[in-house]
Design goal:
The protein is an alpha/beta fold. It has seven helices and 14 strands. The strands form three sheets. Strands 1-2-3-4-5-6 form a six-stranded mixed beta sheet, covered by helices on one side. β8 (102-108) and β9 form a beta hairpin. It binds zinc ion. Zinc ion binds next to loops.
């Protein structure tokens, strides 16, 4: 199984350290090098691969400095080739690469950016969603359409409910406030809002989440039940 460690970078971004059973080391979306290198050094680790979900600076900004420190492979979305420097492995929906003795696959999830991907480890049941989905929220539509984002959500919700979801930002408290406004009577949202408030008061992360929890409390995945959304029925995007 793959072990995941969360590394806070920049203001509210998360990078992730992945460790496979075979000792392989990966880093997802290093928006900043310093905290990632410091953490790796403290554990006496060197990265074998950097995974990238999309081309935004707060997800790739740390790569050059990391590469200067220790050269490793970079795997990212084939559709963002040219927007991300020196990728060694181009990923798309036909990819079946291995990391840590596991085969991983890729969901193409346009919406936030045109070429955005989510990286999926089915055996360990992990999904790295970048800025497609957040805990109780979703990414802003910078390059894609609401329809594309909706189709991207469909790909995510087709995965097993116990898939653990790791997103690119800690936006959960304001997202939870928004979900509560949309569905004020939803008991699961109310309970989760309290839980999130507690965690954030102690500066603790709210990531990872699970697909089950998101289906229950993320209004963007619940928009099919939009009859109870009242005045928010027409909202299509936010993040
Ligand atoms: Zn982004």
């Amino acid at each position: 199984m793959i072990t995941v460690t969360l590394i806070p970078v920049l203001n509210d971004n998360y990078a992730y350290l992945l460790q496979g059973d075979n000792g392989e080391v990966g880093v997802v979306d290093p928006g900043e090098a310093g905290p990632v290198i410091d953490y790796l050094k403290s554990k006496d680790l060197k990265p074998d691969i950097i995974f990238v979900t999309h081309h935004h600076g707060d997800h790739i900004g740390g790569i050059p400095e990391m590469q200067e420190w220790h050269r490793c492979k970079v795997a990212g979305p084939s559709k963002e080739m040219g927007r991300i420097d020196s990728m060694d492995i181009l990923l798309d929906e036909f990819s079946a690469e291995t990391f840590g003795d596991e085969t991983y696959d890729v969901l193409e999830t346009p919406g936030h950016t045109k070429g955005h991907i989510c990286i999926h480890f089915p055996e360990s049941k992990l999904l790295f969603v970048g800025d497609t989905l957040f805990v109780m929220g979703c990414g802003r539509l910078f390059e894609g359409t609401a329809e594309q984002m909706w189709e991207s959500f469909d790909k995510i919700t087709a995965l097993p409910d116990d898939t653990k979801i790791y997103c690119g930002h800690e936006y959960t408290l304001s997202n939870a406030e928004f979900c509560l406004k949309v569905e004020p009577e939803n008991e699961k949202i109310k309970a989760r809002y309290d839980e999130v408030k507690g965690l954030r008061a102690q500066h603790k992360p709210t990531v990872p989440t699970s697909l089950r929890e998101e289906k229950d409390t993320n209004v963007f995945l619940r928009a099919k039940n939009a009859e109870q959304f009242g005045e928010f029925r027409l909202i299509k995007d936010r993040g």
